[in-house]
Write a structure and sequence with these properties.
By secondary structure, this protein is α+β, with helices and mostly antiparallel strands. The chain is 52% helix and 16% strand. The chain has a 5-stranded mixed β-barrel with strand order 1-2-3-5-4. Helix 2 crosses helix 3 and helix 6 packs across helix 10. It starts with a strand and ends with a helix.
């Protein structure tokens, strides 16, 4: 069972990439989000889900662990196969999926090819109680499946390789990390994971600058208090 591939990108197609690993080319199907980060000739490392059927063996690749986790979660919904999962992940990144499912936004999910209103409703309905736990369980740190060729390629100048590193050192926590911590804090206060995620997601979208965990918790509590008052 193949779980990860590291090699050189040989080619990129409409819904797949071919990765050359020690002279062997592996065809890996992927979302447009993942394919958009792959360039022929670059080194890359993709997390892989292997699907074995009587008539074929298909490999599905993911740029990061969170995208892979969503792929596995989506396939638990009846009527959602691997190709439909990739279509969904092509129009909604993992953070967008979290917000869409938590908010019950069927229209956002239905934007994916092959997903009608009925299937979109089923996805949102079946996953709504699971999405909070996924957000809490998702590792905020960068995933190990990120391509590494751009910074190490001998064909590129050293000056270009230094700039991304410098930015990385100066960058603060990303929105995913802040959301994770804020949701965790609200769950510790007794709120359910899904309702906490909805509240924090709404708060995060309303904030344009200076987003902090403290601000998200405060705004999240305000959202939850308003919801309780409306009941």
């Amino acid at each position: 069972m193949i779980a990860k591939l590291t090699g050189i990108i040989d080619s990129v197609g409409a819904d797949f990439a071919v990765i050359d690993v020690a002279g062997v080319g592996y065809m890996v199907f992927a979302s447009s989000r993942t394919l958009g980060r792959l360039m022929p000739g670059d080194a890359a490392s993709l997390l892989v889900e292997t699907h074995v059927r009587e008539d074929h063996i298909h490999l599905f690749g993911f740029y990061d662990a969170l995208e892979r986790d969503w792929f596995k979660l989506l396939t638990t919904v009846q009527g959602v196969g691997p190709k439909v999962c990739l279509a969904i992940l092509s129009v909604l990144d993992p953070d967008g999926l979290v917000h869409a499912v938590a908010a019950g936004d069927k229209a956002a999910v239905a934007r994916a090819n092959g997903v009608g209103p009925k299937l979109a409703g089923r996805i949102v309905s079946e996953l709504k109680d699971k999405v909070g736990a996924l957000a809490l369980g998702a590792a905020p740190a960068p995933a190990e499946g990120t391509p590494k060729g751009k910074g190490k390629s001998k064909s590129k100048g050293t000056g270009k390789a230094k700039k991304p590193g410098k930015k990385k050192e100066e960058a603060g926590p990303d929105t995913r990390t802040l959301t994770h911590d804020a949701v965790s804090a609200l769950v510790n206060l007794g709120y359910g994971p899904s309702e906490a995620l909805v509240a924090v997601s709404h708060a995060a979208h309303a904030m344009e600058d200076a987003v902090t965990v403290e601000a998200l918790i405060k705004a999240g509590l305000g959202e939850l208090g308003g919801a309780e008052g409306a009941r």
